[in-house]
């Protein structure tokens, strides 16, 4: 069992391991922080809502395919890239803000999706131009980055800069999803205007990482 998964279960149940199967089977929602794997999650047979924050888990299909009651997956500030392998689930909500997802086509297998948030992901052009509109036409509410931040995020990704770029109430911000560059990816999101980021990407992309040091 991943230590972060175990810690989340400990907090949920209110005691240290070992955990009884009947206790694990009674958990319907869990919040996991800074996990490197989702090992142990398969024991939560009644899980309906999975929340991940700042996790270094690149794919979730194998870990979630044996959780038939799951209806919502929330992953913020994480290194999630691959969302395939979920066709056996019946999800109605996926909140995937500030991850590393490029391909959204696996979402087309989820006929019951009611809401998707993919803000701050380096979506490829097919996903942004074709998959998002198709999901919307099906009646799914899709929240996504605007053209400005999406294009800049895509440029960063193509240059090998694995950061998210998104718009907040205070301005446009950068995020370091996952645990590769920071132990607290949900904190320290520097503000930088699209014009300034465009200039750095054009003239000196290597300096973008230094913005997090200010």
Q: What is the CATH C level class, in words?
A: Alpha Beta
Measured between the Cα atoms of the first and last residue, the distance is: 37 Å
CATH architecture: Alpha-Beta Horseshoe
Instruction: Tally the beta strands.
Output: 8
- The total number of structural domains is 1
Structural class: alpha/beta
N-to-C SSE series?
A: HHEEHEEEHEHEEH
Structure annotation, total helices? 6
- Please estimate the helix content: 25-40%
Give the spatial strand order of the biggest sheet: 1-2-3-4-5-6
Average of per-residue pLDDT values: 97
- Supply Rg: 18 Å
Main pleated-sheet profile? 6 strands, parallel
Strand content: 5-15%
- Show unreliable segments: none
The H-level CATH homologous superfamily, spelled out, is Ribonuclease Inhibitor
Overall, the morphology is globular
